[in-house]
Amino acid sequence: MSDFVQSLERGLAVIRAFDADHPEMTLSDVAKVTGLTRAAARRFLHTLVELGYMRTDGKLFALRPKVLDLGYSYLSSLGLPDVAQPHLEKLATEVHESCSVSVLDGTDIVYVARVPTKRIMKVMIETGTRFPAHATSMGRTILAAQDPAWLDSFLATTTLTPLTSRTITDATELRAELTRVSTQGWCVVDEELENGLRSVAAPIRNQGKVVAAVNISTHVSRPVDSVHTDLLPPLLATAEAISADLTASGGTLGR
Amino acid sequence: MSDFVQSLERGLAVIRAFDADHPEMTLSDVAKVTGLTRAAARRFLHTLVELGYMRTDGKLFALRPKVLDLGYSYLSSLGLPDVAQPHLEKLATEVHESCSVSVLDGTDIVYVARVPTKRIMKVMIETGTRFPAHATSMGRTILAAQDPAWLDSFLATTTLTPLTSRTITDATELRAELTRVSTQGWCVVDEELENGLRSVAAPIRNQGKVVAAVNISTHVSRPVDSVHTDLLPPLLATAEAISADLTASGGTLGR
């Protein structure tokens, strides 16, 4: 395809080659991880150093904070975090639990705003963290709002990987659960993403269309009754407030 | 320079052309903002759509959440947020104020971890947010630890832009303040970044070298005495705890 700029694909692959297990790499390491020739890897690394996205001591290469500007372009263009954050902070203060907002990207949810309080998850959750949509309360909340043809295709093509012994992995069972979520307007997931984790989510709408979800994470030691009595009312109020502000702001999210 | 991959520079510029004021753009908009020809802009936009970083309805283009993966590569390779976040959460719970960690990038500080509680800043602070180092408590904390030659060059080449009527804009005055900060081991900044904002910061060290800073933001209505009595001891303890964990983790930050 002549319209495809392979150099851009390769340069982005060089950035993504770095992670917690590969914070610093030599030219040879980068060539190996990306499958590029040494000559090509050298050109991309030097370009990224030149542009301020990477640093090197001549031997080892590492990413610089400017890489965050790229993700910031997305978050800023989304408009959602700006709108959601004050409401999330208020909710977290009220319920004393971590609260988050996610959007759907393919078969994953991606966190776009978060106010952490108690640490329940084993995994660190940053903006940009992904989890499989089918096993999370925010994911099911967004999936439940999709049109039937889209959902048929999602269920036909997505492997419902179990993340704990309780994860729903049967498409028919998941579809029944999504119908229930759609009817009741919120979603609880118990220990399907991680043992010990109970989470409740509600939809965020832009001009009536579900474009994101907001949740509260808690521990299974909090009884389901308390989730219904203490967490659900402020969660639903927060989802409504974010939806109203998002619609009023003319945000492009989900348009 | 033959080693420079211009296509990568241009592709990254296309991503960065999108922001809160330009969440969706046509091909012509992108060409105008980036200075590319329409033909070049089309190739980069189509490549980004193909790679999943962008979506289009055929006319308007917008970024997709996958762009966050790029910033995530940096944060993940840093190791610092993982190490700092539990300590930040504990600190925020203890002092009931927003707490953050930043690193220095050029003349800016860049936020790499944050636990928001009360909203004091007018600006939304996401991971990746930048402020001029000279006007912030975290920036001065990191600047104060740099070697004299580096600091001379910084002060000779950086415009000390006033952000409020109280911002120090005189290089000699700033140097005196940095010496004081270096001696006392922490830094308070009052309303030099934003009116109403008082902030106190302490250095984070990796193997003895200052590589980042942690701060607590509060309102000027909290007396300076209370900053010294109530905020400084837990802040210093947090800075020590993060430094110890960072050093123990063998993190590459600042190496």
From TrEMBL, chains A, B:
Keywords: DNA-binding, Glycerol metabolism, Transcription, Transcription regulation. Residues 5-65 form the HTH iclR-type domain. GO terms for biological process: 3,4-dihydroxybenzoate metabolic process; glycerol metabolic process; negative regulation of DNA-templated transcription; positive regulation of DNA-templated transcription. SMART domains: HTH_ICLR (SM00346). GO terms for molecular function: DNA binding; DNA-binding transcription factor activity. Transmembrane segments: none annotated. InterPro entries: GAF-like_dom_sf, HTH_MetabolicPath_Reg, PcaR_PcaU, Tscrpt_reg_IclR_C, Tscrpt_reg_IclR_N, WH-like_DNA-bd_sf, WH_DNA-bd_sf. It comes from the Bacteria. PROSITE patterns: HTH_ICLR, ICLR_ED. The keyword Ribonucleoprotein does not apply. Residues 66-248 form the IclR-ED domain. May be an activator protein for the gylABX operon. This is Glycerol operon regulatory protein. The lineage of its organism: Bacteria, Bacillati, Actinomycetota, Actinomycetes, Pseudonocardiales.
